[in-house]
Amino acid sequence: MTVTNAPTARAAGRGPRKAPPGPPRTRTVKLLRQLMGDRLALMQEAADEYGDEVRLAVGPKTLYFFNHPDYAKYVLTDNSENYHKGIGLHQAKRALGDGLLTSEGDQWRKQRRVIQPVFQAKRIARQADVVADEAATMVARLRTKAGTGPVNITGEMTSLTLGVLGRTLLDEDLGGHGGIGHAFEAVQDQAMFEMLSLGAVPTWLPLPRQLRFRKARAHLEEVVRELTVARERRPTVDGEDVLSRLIESVREERDPRVGEQRMRDELITLLLAGHETTASTLSWAFHLVGGDPEVRERLHEEAVRVLGDRLPVYEDLNQLTYTSMVVEESIRLYPPVWMLSRIAQGPDEIGGYRIPSGADVVICPYTMHRHPEFWDAPEKFDPERFRPDRPTDRPRYAYIPFGAGPRFCVGNNLGMMEAAFVLAMVMRELRLEPVPDRPVVPEAMLSLRVRGGLHMNVERA
Ligand code: HEM
């Protein structure tokens, strides 16, 4: 497959073809309905019907949707300079400000240099102890709920992942800052609403969701401000956590208010990017395992064998092979970041199609991870695909749960370790069973959630 510079068209002297195939304008109403209701079906049907290059005209927007590993490599890595963060960026910025997720250019490079070292392997080892400790508290809580009826697993995972981030990144117990999880939810819901309504509803209208958004954002700012003040009074021993590094880096800012704002944006970004993705990963893993007794049994066996009855330490991660395979397969089927959107900074050509400057280009991990050319029985939950000793000729970019290229997830090691530890610690002593007559439906918001949260019955293993 040719990704760029369409040599055949060029050789014939005809230049690139105009636009990829896609649904006709007459289907606009259906597409808009899917955009509001079932975005995963929208993308999957487009890929099934039109192939690896699709033009999706949805309302006033035209999406250039590319669904092949070569295209993902080109957009996310090889020519990433030409593709800045795309759809939803404006809304995400209103929610998150100018943090690492939403910034570009020199500012992004500078921020990445400050933040990336916090997630290096030697620090992750220390973060492992925090994860194990927080997970033990959560498992103890679940134990008390065994046999009492459906438990909101997503809620449990969200508190856990926020708690872990508070302690690993900020050295703080976020449990004392009530409602922070709900504040993140309100901020995200509004950002998603603005995105889906394609900016048609002015943000100054005093609608209830708008007011909720402002209140939530103000609450988050206040929490982060308190954390920063507390830390400035109480520096850590090595000064190498995120907060200390940020405080140090914004000292160079001439206007202290700009520095403070940057720090708040950065922390809110990290907390949001890090907690919801990992909580979604765990929710989907528990859901998939709950429907597969054989996988559940193997997980239980591995957890008992590797961990015995002690808390996990970083070195255990390499031994929790099957557990990691289950996590990898879970985020293949349900990648928390289900869509990667970019805006072309200048004109380009992909797969022989002309991409105008300003075009919305989309790579969709959800559909890529189910591409029939690269995955056998793509709908099947089969952790064996990720057995480390199993040879595969699958292209690297057919599996991109953490993105790729310069904008690759900074927190991937922490996220993977946390998911594996929590899964192992829960499966070691508990069984999570599906609740009959309660369907589990994916909801593609900023991340891929379980609609209404995942509820499961908890039993002792
Ligand atoms: C299983 C859990 C996670 C998944 C699936 C995930 C996925 C992703 C993906 C796909 C991207 C790239 C987005 C794009 O290119 O548009 C990303 C970026 C990012 N992630 Fe994660 N993430 C996870 C956990 C975390 C954690 C634990 C943290 C931090 C504590 C984190 C912080 C970030 C940040 C700051 C970025 C932006 C990086 C940049 O643009 O330079 N993530 N994540």
Q: Main traits of this protein?
A:
single chain, 461 residues, alpha+beta, 3-stranded antiparallel β-sheet, 16 helices, 51% helix, globular, binds protoporphyrin IX containing FE, iron, Cyt_P450_CS, heme binding, oxidoreductase, monooxygenase
Brief overview:
The chain has 461 residues and is of the alpha+beta class.
Share of residues in helices: 40-55%
Number of helices: 16
Give the overall silhouette: globular
Distance between the termini: 49 Å
Q: Which structural class is indicated by helix and strand composition? A: alpha+beta
Rounded average pLDDT: 88
The CATH first-level class of the domain at 1-97 and 338-375 comes to Alpha Beta
Bound molecules: protoporphyrin IX containing FE
Spatial order of strands in the largest sheet: 1-2-8-5-3
The CATH architecture category of the domain at 1-97 and 338-375 equals 2-Layer Sandwich
Main beta sheet: strand number and arrangement?
5 strands, mixed
What percentage of the residues does DSSP assign to strands (E)? Answer: 5-15%
Pfam families: p450 (PF00067)
Keywords: Heme, Iron, Metal-binding, Monooxygenase, Oxidoreductase
GO molecular function, one term: heme binding
Binding site for heme: 409
Descriptive report:
There is one protein chain. By secondary structure, the protein is of the alpha+beta class. The chain has a domain at 1-97 and 338-375: 2-Layer Sandwich (Uridine Diphospho-n-acetylenolpyruvylglucosamine Reductase, domain 2), CATH 3.30.43.20. Helices cover 51% and strands 11% of the residues. The chain contains 16 helices and twelve strands. The chain has helices spanning 7-11, 28-37, 39-50, 69-78, 89-96, 105-115, 121-144, 153-170, 180-196, 208-233, 242-250, 256-290, 293-307, 321-333, 365-368, 412-429, and strands at residues 53-58, 61-66, 83-85, 151-152, 340-344, 348-350, 353-355, 360-363, 430-434, 442-444, 448-450, 455-460. It has a five-stranded mixed sheet, sandwiched between helices. Strands 4-12-9 form a three-stranded antiparallel sheet. A hairpin with a 2-residue loop joins strand 1 and strand 2. The radius of gyration is 22 Å and the shape is globular. Protoporphyrin IX containing FE is lined by residues 100-101, 112, 165, 269-270, 273-274, 277-278, 281, 331, 336-337, 340, 401-403, 407, 409-411, 414-415, 419.
